[in-house]
Design a protein that fits this description.
The complex is a heterodimer of chains A (462) and B (139). Chain A is of the alpha/beta class. Chain A is built from 16 helices and 19 strands. In chain A, helix 4 (136-148) runs parallel beside helix 5, helix 10 packs across helix 11 and helix 10 (307-314) packs across helix 12. The two termini of chain A are 43 Å apart. Chain B contains six helices and five strands; from the N terminus they run βαβαβααβαβα. Chain B has a single domain (6-132), classed as 3-Layer(aba) Sandwich (Rossmann fold), CATH 3.40.50. Chain B has helices at 19-30, 44-54, 68-72, 75-81, 102-111, 124-134, and strands at residues 6-11, 34-37, 58-63, 88-93, 116-117. The chains are: A alpha/beta (462), B alpha/beta (139). Bound molecules: cobalamin (B12).
């Protein structure tokens, strides 16, 4: 069988991976600068040339691509109560691979409308109210969006008893009605909205972002990159009918601008009597920390962890950390090419992981009663998850991956946070995970075999 | 769309007495109400959030462990703040510590903005009748 080419159009790099599906082997991978401004095919051609320098000339049978170029899939969502439908809307958007620019709750104002228009989202997700519940908010928000104008598509996934009226209010706009993200109180139903978001991405956004030129050569641009990554993680955890997966896992992708955390885990409590609080948690969950990243969001890492903590971990003086962080925040291309920058980057990556995983994981509260302890859990219990997958430059290009990754684990100083007790560490040294997610659409067996083979087992993080 | 009246129920504060809550859930459901049951250890904010999303007609608060008065304080004001003006608020269970004359207890809870407060041992039927009366449900 001829090889298959997997392409990831990133905001900076276009990464290509060649695979021999029949033998489930990675043939090679390479990257070149993304060229959205001119013609994305240029960057793609450059990357393929580099790839073929390693492998020799390849005659591809199929080509599949994912994309986070041109800002990725940028979404804005609005719901009613912040912890309920607004959170469900955010959760649905993130799970569909979107970059959530902002989530609004309660009634949108004129000022919000102006802000939304200026932000130019690719898709707006309009929700609010359980089925048969509150209608006033979503109807008001439909009116505000109708008056605001703009041309972005709107997905309506709120109270079903208000959906058609919202559609009428938004007549003339590109509107899609789908099932409520929270049909009953305490029930999440995010897949229908996510499927709709993916369809819109394929049919409309890929074209709008000038990626269609590429798509003539490509069998399909299948999904946004985070969505491909999520597909890979789900496959790795759950396996296929023929091949078992590795079980529940957490994956962390520390980037320059954001840190993404994925968990494929049911997250149920350890103690049978524990009371579950808040929104139910999806088995496959993605969170994105927009204020936690190694360069563009470097200040967010320090704000969350504290300057003294970063200084203590890196062994540098606080003033020096501050100086370097300011420098790196403006010189975002800087690589950690001195011993000082190397130790600082490692400390920052550790803090980024700790903040992002702590925000992703659930928490447990203890209440003392005269009869003993009672527990209330909010979010996912990840304490029993035993595999941790890590990717991102700061974790791949270092010998100290294990030390950095251990910041994802249970912290005796924060016992309420339900992070893994100990985990086997799997490192995406060759940056293949998004490609494997793409491959899994048609060739899940090969994708799973390759991931098991190529993810480097870095031992136990404790 | 159904005309079923909607109730949000739960046991307030750090209270874990779960049995009465389950009984009330079944009794109210059987009586024809749509019941959103938040279970035990429910904060004021959780009742309010559930009532907003579901457009509920009433919030029925249980308190069994004796701290009801503390836990219920400010609830009406928060409802008003959240746009739930006029929502029916009930409280019952063992809402205060020990044996206090109930008419005084009732007075205090009414002053806090609860429409009705019920003494210990009130059977579900009494509550259902009161709900039907206050929410103008036939039968
Ligand atoms: C079982 C029990 C426990 C169990 C609860 C197990 C569980 N998860 O459910 C455990 C051992 C954990 C427990 C702990 C405590 N308990 Co206890 N417990 C009881 C006991 C014996 C039975 C409760 C029960 O299930 N009753 C059966 C159900 C069906 O009845 P119910 O809960 O009262 O609910 C009915 C009515 O009250 C009413 N109702 C309820 N809500 C509402 C709301 C409205 C609007 C209306 C109209 C009616 C209504 O309808 C319900 C259905 O019929 C009672 C004593 C008793 N006999 O009631 C003490 C009792 C409730 N506990 C009490 C106390 C003090 C405690 C503790 C603080 C300390 C302790 N003594 O252990 C802790 C508190 C823990 C906490 N954080 O909540 C006191 C409360 C005193 C007070 N309010 O003045 C009681 C009354 C015992 C007593 N006489 O001292 N308890």
């Amino acid at each position: 069988m001829r090889p298959i080419l997997l392409i990831d159009f990133g905001s900076t790099y276009t990464k290509v991976t060649a695979v021999d599906v029949e033998n489930a082997k990675l043939l090679g991978s390479a990257a070149a600068y993304t060229t959205v401004q001119t013609d994305v095919n240029d960057g793609l051609a450059n990357a393929v040339t580099r790839l073929e320098e390693q492998t020799g000339k390849l005659d591809f049978a199929e080509r599949y691509a994912c994309s986070s170029a041109a800002g990725g899939l940028r979404m804005i969502a609005s719901g009613l109560v912040p912890e309920l439908t607004a959170e469900a809307a955010k959760c649905a958007s993130l799970g569909a691979g979107a970059k959530v620019v902002k989530t609004y709750s309660f009634e949108l104002t004129e000022d919000d409308a102006a802000e939304i228009l200026a932000a130019k989202p690719d898709i707006f997700l309009l929700v609010g109210g359980t089925d048969g519940g509150n209608k006033a908010c979503i109807l008001n928000n439909a009116h505000v969006l109708a008056e605001a104008g703009g041309s972005f598509p709107i997905v309506i996934a709120g109270n079903r008893n208000a959906a058609r009226e919202c559609e009428r209010i938004l007549a003339g706009r590109e509107v899609y009605v789908c099932e409520n993200v929270m049909p009953k109180f305490g029930t999440l139903n995010i897949e229908p909205a996510q499927q709709r978001i993916r369809d819109i991405f394929l049919n409309r956004i890929v074209r709008a972002k000038g990626l269609t030129k590429a798509s003539e050569l490509i069998s399909g641009i299948l999904m946004p990159t985070p969505s491909a990554f999520l597909a890979a993680m789900r496959l790795l955890a759950d396996g296929t009918k023929a091949q078992s997966g590795i079980g529940e896992l957490i994956a962390v992708d520390v980037g320059g601008a954001t840190t993404d955390v994925y968990s494929i885990a049911d997250g149920m409590p350890d103690h049978p009597g524990t009371i579950l609080k808040g929104l139910p948690e999806p088995y496959v969950k993605r969170t994105v920390e927009g204020d936690v990243g190694m360069r563009y969001s470097i200040h967010g890492i320090v704000d969350a962890a504290g300057l003294d903590t970063v200084a203590a971990i890196s062994g540098l003086a606080a003033e020096r950390v501050k100086e370097l962080v300011d420098f790196l925040g403006t010189h975002t291309d800087t690589l950690p090419n001195t011993p000082e920058l190397e130790t600082l980057d490692e400390a920052l990556a550790g803090c980024a992981i700790r903040t992002a995983v702590t925000r992703h994981a659930g928490r447990i509260e203890e209440t003392y009663t005269m009869m003993g302890l009672a527990y209330a859990q909010t979010g996912k219990n990840l304490m029993n998850v035993e595999r941790l997958v890590v990717t991102g430059g700061s974790l791949i290009h270092t010998k100290n991956t294990g030390k950095i990754a251990s910041y994802a684990l249970y912290d005796p100083k924060d016992t309420a946070s339900l992070k893994p007790r100990k985990a086997e560490l799997l490192v995406d040294r060759k940056y293949i995970l998004a490609a494997m997610g793409l491959l899994s659409e048609h060739y899940p067996e090969a994708a799973l075999t390759i991931m098991k083979e190529e993810l480097e087992n870095d031992g136990l993080a404790e | 769309m159904s005309n079923q009246k909607k109730l949000v129920i739960g046991v307030i504060g750090a209270d874990v007495h779960a049995v009465g809550n389950k009984i009330l859930y079944h009794a109210f459901t059987d009586a024809g109400f749509e019941v959103i049951n938040l279970g035990v250890m429910v904060s004021q904010e959780e009742y309010i959030a559930a009532a907003i999303e579901s457009n509920a007609d009433a919030i029925v608060v249980s308190s069994l462990y004796g701290q009801g008065e503390l836990d219920c304080r400010g609830m009406r004001e928060k409802c008003d703040e959240a746009g739930l003006e006029g929502i029916l608020l009930y409280v019952g269970g063992n809402i205060v510590i020990g044996k206090q004359p109930f008419d005084e207890v009732e007075k205090r809870f009414k002053a806090m903005g609860f429409n009705r407060a019920f003494p210990p041992g009130t059977p579900p039927e009494t509550t259902i009748e009161a709900l039907k009366e206050d929410l103008h449900v036939e039968g």
